[in-house]
Write a structure and sequence with these properties.
Layout lengths: L6 E7 L2 E9 L5 E8 L7 H15 L1
Antiparallel strand pairs: 1-2, 2-3
Length: 60
Amino acid sequence: HVTGPLWEMRLAGRDGIARALYVAATGRRVVVVRVFVKKTRRTPRREIDVALKRAREVLQ
């Protein structure tokens, strides 16, 4: 869990470890709202802000 409705999953790829931020939408849907390659221990605030904005659009 990241914050509010946001959850995070970890993905391994060629460019390193990526993170996907997602929300649980109505019904049994999961919507990925942001994917980025994480280079530091903390999730960057900018990535969280973008994901929250998109999550609000999805959950309306």
